[in-house]
Amino acid sequence: MTLAMTERRERRRGGGAIDVLLVEDNPGDQDLTREAFKMGKITNTLHIVDDGEKAMEFLYKQGQYKDAPRPGIILLDLNLPRKDGREVLAEIKQDASLKTIPVVVLTTSDSDKDILTSYELSANCYLTKPVELDSFLDAIQVLEQFWLTLVRLPASSNRSAD
Question: What is the pTM (predicted TM-score) of this model?
Answer without folding.
Answer: 0.83
